[in-house]
Specification:
about 300 residues, alpha/beta, TIM Barrel, two-stranded antiparallel ribbon, 10 strands
């Protein structure tokens, strides 16, 4: 018997790099949103048309530390509202007005680098601010690319304090999917968050091979689980404050091959799948086709809390 599955969208940032003629920089996705907002709406539209049931907002770069690296940017609240409005425009243009609008909650300082984390209480405060600014305006929150137990604890505590449940996405080591980027065992991380009630725990922005190593550990936990992998060859070249255009895309991860990995995750019982960096609308379409061919019932974001 097949199970229900929520289909997420793919990687916003890499799609914008492909579509915009502007040179990339560390605030590039936000600059595109301010100067070429139609591109952001178009990416959302294309992912929705491909079958995604979620539009993950272009908010990955919107934290105090990340914004402090630039000048002349609007306030956080204004940027969050812009991201929400563009996601709504894209979903409506696709004819999928029922698409859930979900805010991305990133690592507060830098991706993949647990050594840059803020002190716990400061991190809790900053995550709570981001949540409370949008809690009434979006359908949910996805904490993604979380590299350590400490950062997971911070964002889950903030969500608890704000009275919302979120989806939690860990990122694991490329050479060992049983370990977080921090080197901490994924099994220890799941034990550490056992006192919280995330909507689901997923693995994201990791190689699909590493994701497949992590899936059995997620399956053994009490949490609903899933995955959305990236299409990078490696992430080692990215430094804090750097730009993802320094990373190289794989050439062996076309939509068909990506769907084969996703089929493994579904076989293990994953109820959430999607894509991260370098996973575009064609990949999401392949996942949608896979789900339909296997008879999986489409889940909505709200179903996760049922």
């Amino acid at each position: 018997m097949t199970h229900g599955v929520l289909l997420l969208d793919g990687g916003m940032g890499q799609e914008l790099i492909r579509r915009s003629p502007s040179p990339a920089h560390h605030h590039w996705s936000l600059q595109v949103m301010l100067e070429q907002p139609e591109l952001v709406a178009e990416v959302h539209r294309d992912f929705c048309e491909a079958g995604a049931g979620v539009a993950c907002l272009n908010t990955y770069a919107i934290t105090h530390t990340r914004l402090a690296r630039g000048t002349g940017l609007p306030p956080i609240a204004s940027l969050l509202n812009d991201a929400r409005d563009l996601a709504r425009q894209g979903a409506e243009a696709s004819g999928r007005s029922d698409t859930a609008l979900v805010t991305s909650l990133p690592p507060l300082v830098a991706s993949y680098r647990p050594d840059t984390q803020l002190p716990l209480e400061q991190a809790i405060q900053e995550y709570r601010e981001l949540i409370e600014l949008q809690a009434e305006a979006v359908d949910g929150f996805l904490a993604e690319t979380i590299p350590s137990i400490a950062e997971a604890t911070a964002v889950l505590t903030a969500a608890d304090q704000a009275g919302v449940r979120i989806m939690l996405g860990f990122t694991v080591a490329d050479d060992d999917g049983q370990l977080l980027r921090s080197g901490e065992p994924l099994s220890d991380a799941l034990e550490a968050i056992d006192g919280f009630e995330p909507l689901a725990v997923v693995i994201n922005c990791s190689k699909p091979e590493a994701v497949s190593q992590a899936i059995p550990i997620l399956k053994a936990s009490r949490f609903a689980f899933g995955a959305y992998a990236n299409g990078f060859t490696a992430i080692d070249a990215l430094e804090p404050g750097g730009v993802v255009d320094v990373l190289e895309a794989r050439h062996d991860l076309d939509p068909e091959q990506y769907a084969k990995f996703a089929a493994e995750w579904l076989d293990a019982g994953a109820s959430v799948i999607g894509g991260c960096c370098e996973v575009g609308p064609d990949h999401i379409k392949a996942l949608s086709t896979l789900l339909q061919s296997r008879g999986h019932e489409p889940l909505a974001w709200g179903d996760l809390a049922a």
